[in-house]
Amino acid sequence: MKFFQHPGRYALGLVLSLLLAACSGGSGSTSPTAQTTGALLEGIAAAGAPLTGTVYITDSSYPTRKTSAPINQDGTFFVAVDGLTPPLLVKAVGTASGSAVTLYSFATSPGSVQVNPLTDLLVAGASGTQNRADLFSLYSSHNRASLQIIANQLPRLTADLQKALQPLLALYGADTLNPFTAAYQVNHQGLDGLFDDAAINIANGSVTIINRSSGAVVFSAVLENLASGTLNSAGLPTPVTYTKPGNARLTLQLTGLPSGIPVKRLKTTIRLPLGVTVDQGTAAVNTAIPSGSASGATVYPLPSLSTTNNELTLELSSLNGFVDGEFLTLRCIVSYANLSTVTADAFKIVKTELYDDIYKQQKISTGTVLTSMLVFPDMEGKKVYEGRCGGCHTLSSNDTVGRPSLLNKAALVRDKFASGHRGIYLTTQQIEDLQAFLSGYSK
Ligand code: HEC
Predict the structure, then answer these.
(1) Taking Cα atoms as reference points, which of 67, 87, 64, 95 lies closest to residue 79?
(2) pLDDT digits over 259-299, tens only?
(3) What is d(CA 124, CA 147) in angstroms, rounded to the nearest whole number?
(4) Distance 285 CA to ligand 1 centre (A)
(5) Residues 311-345: pLDDT tens digits?
(6) Rounded distance, CA 355 to CA 362, Å?
(7) Ligand 1: which of 396, 414, 422 to mutate, most ligand atoms within 8 Å of CB?
(8) Residues at CB less than 6 angstroms from ligand 1
(9) Which of 135, 146, 341, 348 is most buried by its number of CB atoms within 10 A?
């Protein structure tokens, strides 16, 4: 859906900027850098919850140019920035979880940029801001030099902030992320989880980060000198832990292979829909699990996700080979905003290579990969619970004698079923699904 909306909006932006360019006379531009053509700025605006409203962009031209675009329900935005001269100052105005929010961000070139409380803090710090009103004035009145100062300051300030907030960021796996450029998911994990748990306030030239649940001050610093802020480790929030490594599972199938020729090596590239990513961090997290006749195959190297186009490339090799039918399950992270809309069809197979030897010498000419099913572990887990546990257990907040509640007991399930429980045996998958259901249930 979003991909359909996007060219239209883009074309409109293009027309508008051509008109603007025509009106401004065109000739005699003294801008030191080339204007961008066909360029797009896209990203996600979020403050824990997705921010819905409008994104405004202003540039380094003289006189300055401005453009804007609506922000979608899920926080995503696409803005045509043709004719705008980077660096660009970005402002998102709207509501997140029912509260009015304005957040700033900054882009040194078109492409992707995120807008969130950390980008906001960094722009404030880099621009010598004292209060939110100063940011407002900066947006309405600036010149190339003032944006260039921000561009120059940001790398150092970002590094300072990462260092000063390391213990807090690390809790959310975000200690090495650049908040302007790192892929962002509205899924209560990573940076998004941090913004759920901590409020970042800017006033009187200082920043204060507050633990939302306890009210404790986690960090305070003078905006101009984030590096020497004070971190209160006793006040750090406790992140919610989610069942790794994903909240959705996609099944991939092979079809149309020549009969009698098993695939021994497969390389495929899948474009994930917007708002969907995979956790590809470490070998410990199994993103891609060979299944069906490919069970036991090797996924190597680690699947890699391109942050520019959200394409995932994965390679599979199998000594015995595998045939038509299911061969892989892919564990994905779908942003909360997309959970109800994303389907298996939204995943596009971009390219597939099939070989009948693991050294990639004998190509198989026919055969395609299909995305066949997208399921959500927590919903699968609910079915397992209702079908197999609900008769003897509850999900209430207190245990009843002889009828224990399973609320908040996700962690006990694996051991309980190591060798069956009450005559019930569960597969690893069912255990994971149950854990996903039980750990999400109390939220
Ligand atoms: C026939 C009844 C019955 C069924 C069905 C059953 N359980 Fe139990 N379960 C019990 C009883 C009774 C206990 C408490 C005694 C014990 O620990 O074995 C228990 C204990 C547990 C515990 C430990 C709870 C604690 O507080 O220590 C877990 C975890 C658990 N069950 C999970 C499950 C899951 C998951 C399912 C479904 C897949 C399930 N059980 C199905 C009867 C059942």
Answers:
(1) 67
(2) 889 999 999 999 999 889 887 655 445 788 899 999 989 88
(3) 12
(4) 28
(5) 999 999 999 999 999 999 998 988 766 776 788 99
(6) 5
(7) 422
(8) 384, 388-389, 391-393, 402, 404, 406, 409, 412-413, 416, 421-422, 424, 426, 434
(9) 135
